[in-house]
Design a protein that fits this description.
Number of helices of chain A: 6
Largest interface: A-B, 49 and 46 residues
Distance between the termini of chain B: 123 Å
Helix content of chain B: 40-55%
Strand content of chain B: 5-15%
Helix content of chain A: over 70%
Strand order of the largest sheet of chain B: 1-2-3-4-6-5
Strand content of chain A: under 5%
Structural class of chain B: alpha+beta
Largest sheet of chain B: 6 strands, antiparallel
Number of strands of chain B: 12
Distance between the termini of chain A: 49 Å
Order of helices and strands of chain A: HHHHHH
Oligomer: heterodimer
Shape of chain A: elongated
Shape of chain B: elongated
Number of domains of chain A: 2
């Protein structure tokens, strides 16, 4: 426990380092890859929303929607990069309704998957449990048939 | 309507020697006593073992005994043989052992017994015991002991009574058995000429039971008639001496003297003086009379002495040996006593007052100083103190002190307990005759449980061989009689003390069972009856088996005492299987086996596994039909099968409970399981998202750069 907890001084130092790195990296990225950042920012809005909406620690919904969302953004990201990563190319992508349909549609599929996957697993589990109970009860009936009702517990 | 004939299993007819040669067997007579096919007897006759017809409508009072009524009888195979049958008192056991031992012998001086057994008697709900005897040619010598008649001459007595009787008495003495019913009204003339006499029966009642006290020795006269015991030739010869006196006088010489007074006189003055009084016995008979009536057992004549006398050898008559007299009398209940025997008799008679006397110093002083008998005083002191200690420990009451005290004071006298006198060899008879008399039965039981017979034998200066043998039996009886469980108690003592006694089980009302070999065949017949009881055992049967079994059966008896019916019935089967092993020839008893199998149905039903139970039931049925009880026991007492069944049952019950728990777990954790499933679904969805990213990326790369 003592080994796991980082002493306050060390934690403040590492935060400072990360903060300093971000202050350096972010402006550089903004300057040299602005269209990519903008595409990510706009295209992954559903993911950001999912991240905010999913209150659970595991953030499964966020990962699911994020994955689907990202897979919708990916083709346009490569299209952008293949056309020079320019604002003009970005504009062409963002003005096409089909692009938004794909990106946000994928996110919607992610939401659907996030809803239906647990439903399916729960249903499967229910069916399996019922089958198991039925099997056990059948075994009990066999025992009763062989040994009579005396085997049943008195309570 | 023809009476039903019960079919005997073949083996019954070929039963062991004891059954074949015995006049009684396991067969049950047809209901109503109808004659067998082809029988020439009239319709009213009753058949004894199919051999002898008895006519209840033809009584012969002139041959009746005190406790047995005589009727005309006729042997099928010998119609000319004059017979009569005695219908015995149902409460009185007959002397079957005596009849068995004398069966093959012709005793010319005694009426011959032709046959005996149980018959269906008209008007009776239970079967009755009859004895068939040869009918004498003449009438009774002295029809009534109370009615005087013409005296007989000395010569008539010697040639008519003593000479014919002597060989028979010798035969009996040689076999160690006594007649015990020698008296004038039990003598018959052999013909109308009234010369020779023959002695009547002495077997319809216990030994000595019908004898008036005047014909009994001092010791036997002190006994209750039922407890006089087998006795010996000494008793017969004493009775013969008194009989001679009666016949010589033609009357009872002490008719006006009551029994107690007569006994007191015999003790005080000797039997000869007490009985003969002032009568002058013919010189030719005086020696014999004195010898026969001697109160000293060592001095009393034996059959050999009588034989020698009759052969002409004469001795001088012996004077009576009287008990030692004290220098001063002892007063008890305002009566003075000068000898210890009379005093002991008085104590035994007035037992409630005697207890304190026996512990008192005056008595002790009297014994030591007036009588000069230190040994007797010491013996009395020891007996009283040891009994008092036992009483203080909660064993018995003051009556035991009186009984022990009287034994110490007068060892040859019989056991006297609360006014009831019994000899050691009469205890069995007393018990047998007391079964329907609760008070007397209780008395006899207390005598046994307080070990009085053992103390009596120990007090004898020279115990007889038969008494020493009796001690071995008597040692184990107190423990037996005090147990109330089946197979013990009074019933067991009855059969232990009376080796020839028939089994008194109510199931055998219609049979005469005297040996263990007859039990299973008899039960086989009972099993076929419509009115058979619920179970083939009762106290008498089990006690009978326990007493007669060749090997101890205590383990089976313990099983019979349990409350659990299955355990009890299994113990019953074990017992019967033990008897079956001891049979000389194995005879299947299918009806009995099926009866027992029915009772043991709970044992079969005790198997938990249904298929195994059904299989067991079939096996039991098949084995029962074979009729071998040992095989049935093997099937029902198979511990291996039971163990396997129990083990399987325990396992099955455990499995059932486990399954119950599993189902409860599944149903109880429903929410948790749903939560787990949901989480799994979300994980799958998240993974799917991740996978899709990879696929989409690869696809995008491929599409862009090709």
């Amino acid at each position: 426990m003592a080994e796991m907890t980082v002493p306050p001084a060390q934690s403040a130092r590492s935060r400072k380092v990360i903060g300093t790195a971000l202050w350096i990296m972010v402006p550089l990225v903004l300057v040299f890859a602005l269209p990519t950042v903008l595409l990510f920012a706009l295209g992954l809005l559903p993911t950001i929303v999912a991240w905010i909406v999913d209150r659970r620690e595991e953030k499964y919904a966020a990962y699911c929607v994020g994955g689907f969302n990202l897979s919708g953004v990916m083709p346009y990201l490569f299209l952008l990069w293949s056309t020079g990563d320019s604002m003009h190319a970005l504009g062409a992508i963002l003005t096409s309704p089909f692009s938004w349909l794909v990106m946000y549609g994928a996110a919607a599929l992610g939401w659907l998957a996030n809803y239906w996957a647990p439903q399916i697993t729960m249903r499967v589990r229910r069916v399996r449990d019922r089958a198991e109970v039925a099997r056990l009860r059948k075994r009990q009936e066999q025992i009763l048939e062989e040994w009579g009702p005396e085997v049943m517990p008195t309570e | 309507m023809e009476a039903e004939q019960e079919v005997l299993p073949e083996a019954l007819e070929e039963a062991p020697v004891a059954i074949d040669e015995a006049p009684v067997a396991v067969e049950e007579a047809p209901v109503g006593g109808a004659p067998a096919e082809g029988e020439e007897a009239p319709d009213l006759s009753v058949m004894l073992r199919g051999r002898c017809a008895i006519f209840p409508d033809q009584p012969l009072p002139q041959y009746s005994s005190k406790h047995a009524v005589a009727f005309h009888a006729q042997m099928r195979t010998d119609l000319m043989r004059p017979l009569f049958a005695l219908l015995c008192d149902p409460e009185m056991p007959a002397r079957v052992e005596f009849m068995e031992s004398m069966r093959s012998y012709q005793l010319h001086g005694i009426l011959q017994t032709a046959d005996w057994g149980m018959v269906d008697w008209p008007g009776e709900t239970r079967r009755r015991f009859v004895i068939v005897l040869d009918r004498p040619g003449g009438m009774r010598v002295m029809p009534s002991l109370d009615t005087p008649q013409a005296p007989l001459e000395e010569e008539a007595l010697v040639t008519g009574l003593l000479q014919p009787l002597l060989p028979s008495l010798k035969e009996l003495a040689g076999r160690g058995i006594a007649h015990r019913a020698i008296r004038p009204d039990n003598l018959y003339y052999t013909d109308g000429g009234r010369r020779a006499m023959v002695l009547g029966e002495g077997v319809s009642t216990p030994p000595g039971f019908d004898q008036p006290a005047v014909f009994e020795t001092i010791e036997c006269a002190m006994c209750d008639p039922i407890g006089r015991g087998e006795g010996s030739q000494a008793n017969d010869l004493y009775a013969l001496g008194v009989t001679l006196l009666f016949l010589l006088l033609g009357r009872n010489p002490v008719a006006n003297v009551d029994e107690k007074e007569l006994l007191a006189n015999k003790i005080e003055f000797g039997s000869y003086s007490a009985l003969v009084g002032s009568y002058r016995v013919p010189l030719g008979l005086m020696e014999a009379m004195r010898g026969l009536l001697s109160d000293d057992l060592k001095e009393r004549w034996t059959v050999n002495d009588l034989d020698m006398w009759m052969s002409g050898r004469r001795q001088s008559p012996k004077q009576a040996k009287l008990p030692q007299r004290s220098s001063r009398p002892y007063v008890f209940e305002n009566v003075e006593y000068s000898n210890v025997r009379s005093l002991a008799f008085a104590f035994a008679t007035h037992y409630t007052e005697a207890s304190n006397q026996l512990r008192s110093k005056p008595l002790d002083s009297w014994l030591r100083r007036s009588l000069g008998d230190e040994a007797r005083a010491d013996a009395l002191q020891q007996a009283v103190s040891s009994t008092a200690a036992a009483i203080a420990g909660g064993k018995g009451g003051e009556d035991r002190i009186v009984a022990r005290g009287c034994i110490a004071l007068d060892p040859p006298s019989p056991i006297r307990y609360r006014g009831f006198g019994v000899s050691v060899d009469g205890i069995g008879w007393a018990l047998a005759a007391s079964l329907s008399d609760r008070d007397r039965r209780q008395l006899v039981s207390e005598i046994i449980s307080s070990r009085l017979p053992i103390h009596w034998v120990a007090a004898q200066a020279k115990p007889k061989a038969e008494d020493l043998r009796a001690v071995q039996m008597l040692e184990k009886l107190p423990a037996i009689i005090d147990q109330v469980g089946i197979g013990y108690g009074v019933e067991r003592c009855l059969y232990e003390l009376n080796p020839s006694h028939r089994c008194l089980s109510s199931m055998f009302d219609r049979a005469y069972i005297t040996s263990i070999q007859q039990v299973l065949p008899a039960l086989e017949i009972v099993a076929q009856r419509q009115d058979r009881p619920d179970t083939p055992i009762d106290r008498h049967l089990i006690a009978f088996i326990a007493a007669r079994a060749q090997r101890p059966v205590d383990e089976q008896l313990r099983g019979l005492a349990t409350n659990d019916p299955s355990t009890r019935n299994l113990a019953m089967l074990r017992l019967f299987a033990t008897i079956e092993e001891q049979q000389e020839s194995l005879m299947p008893v299918p009806n009995l086996a099926k009866w027992i199998a029915g009772l043991l149905e709970p044992v079969v039903n005790g198997f938990h596994h249904r298929r195994r139970r059904d299989k067991m039931a079939q096996l039991v049925q098949a084995t029962a039909e074979q009729g071998i009880l040992g095989e049935l026991l093997k099937v029902l007492a198979d511990d291996k099968e039971k163990g396997a069944d129990q083990q399987g049952y325990t396992g099955a019950a455990a499995e059932y409970r486990e399954i119950d728990q599993q189902i409860r777990d599944i149903e109880g954790s429903y929410q948790l399981r749903m939560d787990d499933a949901r989480q799994l679904g979300e994980q799958i969805a998240a993974a799917l998202g991740g996978l899709l990213v990879s696929v989409a990326t690869a696809f995008a790369v491929f599409a862009t750069f090709t």
